[in-house]
Amino acid sequence: MKQIWNWGKYQVSWQVEGEKKDSSIACIFIHGFGASKEHWRFNQKFLSSITPCYALDLIGFGESSQPISKLSYEKESHESFNYCFDQWSQQIIDFCNEVVKKPVVLIGNSIGGVIALNASNKLDQGCSRIVLIDCAQRTMDDKRLNEQSLFMRFIRPIIKTLVRQRIFSATLFKNAANPSFIKKILKIAYPSGQNINEELIEILFKPTQREGAPEAFRGFINLFDDHLATDLLKSLRIPIYLIWGEKDPWEPVKEAQQWLKSFESIKSLMIISNAGHCPHDEMPEKVNPILKKIIQEAI
C-alpha cells in the first residue's frame, strides 16, 4: 500500500508489505540512482512473509519530492535541496525513527548501499544487519583521483564545470529520459536480459517526466566529493553481507572481493552468476533465498 510521509517540507512516497507481521525487526529497501521503491517489485512482497518490509523513494526519485538542486557553493533557498549522501541518509534515519519504530535490516542497491552504511549507526532502535547489493564504489570521487588515468585527471575540471551548468545537465537528462535509451542502459545493467520488460521501463521512465526530475539528476552528477563505502566500512561493527552480480559493468566484483578481505564487519560475499548491477531484480529467484536467510538469522 502506497503512502505519503511528510518529511519537513518534503513529501516521501513509501509502501509496506507485511505491516501487521509480528516480528522484532523490519526490512528497509533503499534503491539506487534513477530507480524507486518499485525496483524491489520481486523482493518486498516475497520477504514480507517473514517480516514487515518497507520501501521508500529517496528525495528526487520515484514519487517523492523533487526539489531544486543546491550545490555546495550555491546559496540555500527555501525550495532547494542538497542532493548528497548525508541528506538521503537522514531521510532514512528519520523514516525509521518516526514510521518504522523498531530495529531494522537495511538493504541497499548501488548508491542505496552507501546510504545504508551511512545511516546504520544513527538509528534510535538500531540496525541489526546491512545487505549491500552491488554497492556503489564511486570510482569518480575526488578522493579516488589518483586511480584515474592521466587523461581523466586532465579533463576532470572541465567536466566538473560543465555539469554544474543547468543548461548542460538538463540537455544530458533530456537525452537520457526516454524509453529507448533506458532500454539500452538496462541491457548493459542486466546482461542476462532477464526481467527487462515494459513494467521495468515504465518504473524508470515515469519519474523522469516529472517537473523536478532534471534537478535531481543535476544534484547527483555533481557528487564529486562525498562518502565512500570503504571509509564508512572502517568504522562499522554491524554485520554486513554482500550480494554482487558477477557481470556488473559499473561496480567490479573484484573490488567487492577485496572488501571481504579487508573489513571484519563483512561476513560474506555471494556472487550471482551472469547477473549485472541489479541482481535482486534481474535474478530474484537467486537473490531472495539469500536475503531470506540473512533476515531469518536476524530475527
Characterization of the model:
The chain has helices spanning 44-47, 85-100, 111-119, 150-164, 166-176, 179-189, 198-205, 213-221, 229-233, 253-262, 279-282, 284-298, and strands at residues 2-7, 10-17, 26-30, 53-56, 68-69, 80-81, 104-109, 127-133, 240-245, 266-272. Helix 5 (166-176) crosses helix 8 and helix 6 packs across helix 7. The protein has 299 residues and is an alpha/beta fold. It has one domain: Rossmann fold.
Shape summary: globular
Strand order of the largest sheet: 1-2-4-3-7-8-9-10
Structural class estimated from helices and strands: alpha/beta
Kindly estimate the percentage of residues that lie in beta strands according to DSSP: 15-25%
Structural domain tally:
1
* Mean of pLDDT: 95
CATH superfamily placement: Alpha/Beta hydrolase fold, catalytic domain
Helix content: 25-40%
Question: What does the secondary structure layout of this molecule look like, with pairings?
Answer:
Blueprint: E1 2-7, E2 10-17, E3 26-30, H1 44-47, E4 53-56, E5 68-69, E6 80-81, H2 85-100, E7 104-109, H3 111-119, E8 127-133, H4 150-164, H5 166-176, H6 179-189, H7 198-205, H8 213-221, H9 229-233, E9 240-245, H10 253-262, E10 266-272, H11 279-282, H12 284-298
Parallel strand pairs: 3-4, 3-7, 5-6, 7-8, 8-9, 9-10
Antiparallel strand pairs: 1-2, 2-4
Helix pairs in contact: 2-3, 5-8, 6-7
